[in-house]
Every structure is written in structure tokens, then in C-alpha cells.
Write a structure and sequence with these properties.
This protein has 507 residues and is α/β, with parallel strands linked by helices. It folds into 2 domains: 15-365, no CATH class; 381-495. It has 20 helices and 5 strands. The protein has helices at residues 23-43, 48-58, 70-82, 86-110, 115-126, 129-134, 141-161, 166-180, 185-197, 209-230, 234-240, 253-263, 266-278, 281-285, 290-309, 323-334, 341-348, 350-368, 385-398, 409-418; strands spanning 403-406, 425-427, 448-453, 466-479, 482-495. A hairpin with a 2-residue loop joins strand 4 and strand 5 (482-495). The chain is globular, with a radius of gyration of 25 Å.
Length: 507
Amino acid sequence: MSRTRPSPGAPASANFALAEPDLAFAAAVVLALVLFRLCVAGLVDVVPDEAYYWLWSRSLSTGYYDHPPMIAWWIRAGTALLGATSIGIRVVPVFSGLVVSAAVYGICRDLRLDRRIAAMAALWTNATFLIAGAMLLATPDAPSVMFWSLAVWGLARLRRTAVGAWWLGIGAVAGLGCVAKYSNLFLGLGIVLWVFADPKARGWLRSPWPYLGGVIALAVFLPVIIWNAQHDWVSFAKQFGRITDGHLTLRYLGEFVGGQFALLNPLVAIFAGLAVFRLRRTDVLGGISPAGFLMVLSAPLALYMLVHAFHDRVQGNWPAPIYPALAILAAMAAGNPTNGGRLRGLARWVLPVGLGLQVVGLGYVAVAGPAGLPFRTPLDQVAGWDGLTRTLDDMREDSSGGWIATVDYGLTGELALHAEDPDHVQEVIDRDRYSFERPNPALARQPALLVLRGRDPETSRFAGCFQSVEPLGWVARTAGSRVAERYKVYRPAGPAEDILSKGCTLR
């Protein structure tokens, strides 16, 4: 599809070169990015969180201790096709990037934005660093972002067509978003806010369609609620308990703002901020502005994150579902024909910076790996797991051990993923995390190895878990010639009888 060209009398600002891609160009770039991410996914080992979610996928459930179950279902689908490999674990999240990009383009077109703006928004979504990570790693963020984006696309279509049946599809994908991550519940608040704030949407309050959509969303989410009810509301308590964490402080506010500025891509963040700055009161309350529509839907989650930052640390990935909307707002601001030359010039750098850094950074990691870096980085968490697992297996066999005990879910997941028999790796603390497992009680009566990170508790605190703990030595997980992390290995004896069902408490 060719680009819309400015008329001879149009101002020069209507043409901003690389910042005005057409659909064909955007589709080609997005497809190339997906293929590139697939290559990276296959070459880079999984991070500990992904290995932990892989454990979930071995025993499918409608709920888990940490999150709803969608990512486990996605991993199960991918590994059924490609095996328990890094690419098998990540393949569905990677391809979800295509869906998110299509949804962003569709949102823009249903909001009657220019095709250039729609194509730019799809590309700029992929140029945000957080979305790039979310569409590569097998974490709950990938399905969370995808279903949120699809729901907003449905709402944009509803806004344009006023066809009530769209509420049914919106309810379905919004419910699936909540099955992916609890933060998607904030979209429901955004929808309610939009219906009340937009005079053109208030008529839906007298229609049965939005209520039917709400019933569908609840029905989709109901299995997660039932699972929580059957497990003492453990998952709800863990996630929603954060609302009351901490006390009023400015300590985390700067970290939150600065972190989001970087993760969004500083250039995208500048244009998104410009879109907010240009918003008029009538754009929100008058029901006339696509920008106001996107901001109202995103407001509850954004406001919660801001309030949380005044009490406790906000993890950088938490606002991920609203990043596509922010990319659309940024593209709208960049495409404004009244922009001066500096803004038009800045817009040209968004893709080279966002996509260029991704390709160079991820490409280097995929080819050289963490071992190619002479210093410690967060990438060390993916290095050396095969070698560490083999070393521990040899030690276990030499000491006639039957299983490996851990106290960390990430270590548990990585050792299980790389072990010949994943069932022989069991965490002995926080067994609530493993309600999906039914380990053989006889395993606890076999000799074991206790593996602790160098920073883990001293063995004197394990008196409630084992009658005795004998040190065997240290082992290292390496990144090339560097030591990524050291582990203390012990031979425990006399485990508590219910250590694999109820776990034990450190003293």
C-alpha cells in the first residue's frame, strides 16, 4: 500500500521520511523482527523465571501460586511442538508479537487515524524495549499485552461501528487477559471509566450488550477464581497484597519514572509525553479524541503504578499492557503536521535507536553469549546451567543421592529443566508454589544433596528441615572463563516426613 503523499501546498512538516512508513514496510519489518527473535530464542538459554513457568507447564492447572495459568498453557503448546528447549518454551510468546502489532495497526485504523500513523505505531510498539523483551521471553507479560491489545482493538471497533455484539468479543479477550495476569483487571476499570466519561459511550449503559460482555469475561476468569478458592486464595493474596505494602516514601518514584522512560525507549517516551501535554479537557470529556480514548482506558493501571511507586518498588515490566497505547499516542504526536523541524528529526531516530539497539544487543548475546562479556551482567543468569546440572548429578551419584533439594524457585526450575529427571529436583521451602506437583513421598527417604546459592541462609537455620547437614564443598556456574555464581552443596540427613508436601520453615 503506497504512502499518502502531501499535497503541493501542504507544509513540509507533513513529510517526515522514515517516520512515515507504509503498511507493507511495517509488515516486513515486524515479520523480520519475529524471525530474528525466534533465532535469539533458540540460541539463548531460558532465564530462571521461564524455567519455573516451564515447571508449571508440566502439570497444567487453572491457577498457580504466583500468577494465573495462561503462560503455562502457552509453554505447553510450544514444547509439545518443539520439545523442552528454549525455542519450544518461547515460540508462542514470540509469535504473539505479530498479533500485538496487528492489533495496534487495527486500533489506529478503527480510531480513524492515518495509515502512516497506524504503520508507525505498530513499528514503534516493537521499538519499545520492554515490549521487545515481553515478545521474546516466556513470561505472563506476553499474553497479558496481547489480550489487552486485542480488547482495546475491539473497543476501538465498537467505538467506530456502535455494533453492540462487539461487547461479547471484548468480554472474551478481556477475560483471557485476566487469565494471563491479574494486572489486566485494570482494563475493566478503564472500560467502565470510558463508558461514563465519554458522552457518546454512555448510551451503552442502557443496553444489555456491555453487561453480557461482562458476564462472558467473568465466565472466562471464573476457573481462576475457583482455583484460588480451593487454595486459600493464595494467588490473590500474593498479588493483591502488594497494594498495602510499604509506607509513603519518595524513594522509589524516581526509579519508577526513570525506568519507564528507558524501557519505553526515551524517544518514544518524549512523544508520548507530548501527546499527554497536548491533550485538552474536551478531548477526554467530549468524546471526540482518539488520544483521550486511549488515555482513559490506560489510566487505572497507570495511576495504580504511580500510587504504588509512592509506597514500594514497581517492577519495570508491570506497566507493559499499556505500552502499545503509549506507542500509538507517541506516533500520533510525531505525525502532527504542526511539529517543528526538531521534532520531525527526532521522529526519524525512533526506529534506528529502538530496533537497532535491539538487533545489535540481542544479536551479540545470541552469538557470543554472556561468556563473550568480560564483566558480570544480568545476562549471567542464563549461563552455565547445563554444566552446573551435570556437576551436581555427578556429585549426587558419587554420594548415592536420590534427589536434589533447593530453597529457590529459579534454581529449582533451571536444574529441573536441565536434569535427566526433573522430578528429582525439589524445593523444600515455599511448597505452596508447587501445589501443582505431587512428588513421590518415598523420594524424601532417599539420600539427597542440598544446593544453596552463596547468598542463601546459613545451614543452622535448616534444623527444622533436616536432622543434620554436612558440607560437601562449592560448585560454580560459569559464563565462559568467568564464574557467574557459586553454590554451596551439602549432604542433608533425616528430612522432615512431610518435607515434599508441606515443606519446612527456616529457623
